[in-house]
Amino acid sequence: MKKFAFIVHLRASYRKDMQFLAAPLGWIPDSFYRFALRNRPLAPFIWSDVHVTSEATQAQGCVIMLPYSGQQLLEQQKAMMPRLQEAVELASSTGAEIVGLGALTSPITLGGKLLTTDSPVSITNGNAFTAYITWKKVAQLIQAHPNRCPTVALVGATGSVGSLVAQLLATHQPEANYLLVARNERKLSALAVAMQALDACVRPKISLAMDAVRQADIVVLLTSAADALLHGKHLKKGAIVLDDTQPRNTHPNLCKQRPDVTVIDGGLVAMHHLRLTRSVGLPPGLSYACLAETMLLAQADHEGHFSIGNPTLAQADYISTLAIRFAHLGFELSADYSFGKPLARSVPARLTEPAFTLSSTR
Ligand SMILES: NC(=O)c1ccc[n+]([C@@H]2O[C@H](COP(=O)([O-])OP(=O)(O)OC[C@H]3O[C@@H](n4cnc5c(N)ncnc54)[C@H](OP(=O)(O)O)[C@@H]3O)[C@@H](O)[C@H]2O)c1
Fold it and tell me: For site-directed labelling of 301, which of 14, 43, 193, 251 has its Cα 20 to 30 A away?
């Protein structure tokens, strides 16, 4: 097995994430951190060792922290590039041969493209497996939905994860109605055409407005914004939201304002033996799907870069076969969580039933 590294950034705020380093750091207000650290080039550092298998006595990988918030990454993309390159070099110095890109480190590097030139390691943005895991969950939700042909909104449909989820759904669930939402109309139209080419029955609608999401029974959130984009006013009664975003584009208050709505944390993978020396904000035994892709490629001794930019259907197929090969370690869709807690509301039993695989639904 190759060694791997996974690059993350602060998820919410300095205050919230620093308390994982030492509890008193969580009492310092964010404004102080922002003032003290403004315009300082902060070096990435090793946040956590990672053990994937139960018998591992030494770390099989690590998580590298880029100490900037999602907002900072989006606002200062150019300034972040040298920091990301430092993170890749740090990964390489630990012996890692495969590096995965967590959260917004992928969108700001064009899905990893900007890091591939002269890279000492293989890069993956982790989005082929993320799309595959997300598709599996959406397929379950469609099958269990009381409407025979529910409307599924893909918000952030044209992105690296979104475009592959859309193609998987067009291929395997052509019966549903699809609404594609993002800000670039040209890309949305091209994706709608690509979905129709996969199955002529699929006739997606496109929209640039979040308000259009109110038509949807199932909303899949795949945007790369730094804060909450989806609000109660955007959702129809009883809507189910699958939120893949990191940092989250839904606010915990959403469920208080709209108790009729169910929010499920998306892109989560069950990993039976996974151990981290410091949390990345998930309950034990769970991994982000993009981290899971990095671990899968490392387990398989993969050579070369993998998911770069928008991954393809063939890559989803390949990574799903690796997930089956290493199923003794997990690499499967997790149980339902909502804002990090096991989903209290009972989702109809059918939602958790069929285990879709790419080969079984073709
Ligand atoms: N849970 C996991 O394991 C996991 C794994 C991978 C990624 N993720 C998360 O998934 C999300 C998407 O990642 P990605 O790599 O696919 O990002 P991406 O390639 O940048 O795609 C983002 C998509 O969102 C749209 N978008 C961005 N800002 C928007 C806004 N304000 N309003 C409406 N649409 C907006 C973009 O299109 P326009 O620019 O045209 O609007 C694009 O369609 C990120 O939050 C990432 O952290 C989670």
Answer: 43
Nearest CA to ligand 1 atom 9: 245
**AA letter at 101:** L
Interval between CA 48 and ligand 1 midpoint (Å): 25
Residue ranges with strand state E in the chain? 4-10, 45-51, 61-69, 98-101, 122-124, 151-155, 177-181, 205-207, 218-221, 240-243, 262-265, 268-271, 275-276, 286-288, 330-333, 337-338, 341-342
CA dihedral 295, 55, 334, 342 (to 10 degrees): -130
Straight-line distance from the first to the last Cα atom of the chain, in angstroms, rounded to the nearest whole number? 31
Q: Which two tokens stand for residue 320?
A: 């799903």
pLDDT at 254: 95
Q: How many CA atoms lie within 13 A of 147 on its CB side?
A: 16
* DSSP track, 192-237: HHHHHHH-TT---EEES-GGGGGG-SEEEE----SS----GGG--T
Determine phi and psi for 128, rounding to 5 degrees.
-70, -45
**Cα(74) to centroid of ligand 1, in Å?**
12
Q: How far, in Å, from the CA of 224 to the mean position of ligand 1?
A: 3
At residue 300, does pLDDT exceed 50?
yes
Residue 188 Cα: closest atom of ligand 1: 40
Check pocket membership of 224 for ligand 1, CB cut-off 6 A: yes
What is the spatial distance between Cα 290 and Cα 267, in angstroms, rounded to a whole number? 8
pLDDT at site 352: 42
Would the pLDDT of 17 be above 70?
no
pLDDT given for residue 325 in this prediction: 98
Residue in 161, 207, 268, 271 to alter for ligand 1 test, most ligand atoms within 8 A of Cβ: 161
The reported pTM is 0.93
Q: Are strands 177-181 and 205-207 parallel, antiparallel or unpaired?
A: parallel
Band (pLDDT 50/70/90 cuts) for residue 329 is: very high
- Verify whether ligand 1 is closer than 6 Å to residue 233 (CB atom): no
Burial call 151-178: b when 16+ CB within 10 Å, e when fewer: bbbbbbbbbbbbbbbbbbbbbbbbebbb
Query: Residue with the nearest Cα to atom 5 of ligand 1?
Result: 290
